C-alpha cells in the first residue's frame, strides 16, 4: 500500500465524479466539489506527512539495544511489581509539549485556513451548494474504500492462482 497508488485511485474516482457532474449538473456544482475535494485533500495530506515525520523521529530515537538476551534492563521477568499511578505534573507537561507538534503545525493550520477560505469564497460568490460541497469532501474516503476493495479482490485472485 503506497501513497501513490492510493492517490491514483482517489484521483480516478474524482475524475469519474467530475465527468458525471459535467453531464448532469451545472458548473457551480463542479466548482463546489472540486474546491472541497482539493482543500480537504490538502488537510489529509499534511496530516499524513506530519504523522509520518513524527513516526520517523520516534523510530530514530528508539534505543535498538533496549532488550537483549544478555541484559534485561527492565528486569521484566524477574518479579511482579505493583505499579501505583502517580500524578506527575512535570511529566504530563513534557508529554503535552512533545506531542504538541503533532497537532499544531503551520502547514496544517494553513491547509485548514485554505479550506475555510474556499468555503467562504464560494459563499461570497453565491455559488455555494452544501450537498455538492459534502460530495467533494466524500471523494477522498470513497476513493480509499475503492482502493481497499480493489486490493482485496487482487489479493483473492492472487491466492486462487497458486
Mind explaining what this structure looks like?
It is a single chain. This protein is mostly helical and about 160 residues long. The chain has one domain. About 75% of the residues lie in helices and about 0% in strands. The chain contains five helices and no strands. It has helices at about 5-25, 25-60, 90-105, 105-125, 130-160. Helix 1 (about 5-25) packs antiparallel against helix 2 (about 25-60) and helix 2 packs across helix 5 (about 130-160). The longest helix is centred in the N-terminal third of the chain and has 35 residues, at about 25-60. The protein is flat. The two termini are about 20 Å apart. The relative contact order is 0.18. The model has no long low-confidence stretch (mean pLDDT about 80).
Looking at this protein, list some descriptive labels.
162 residues; mainly alpha; 5 helices; 76% helix; flat
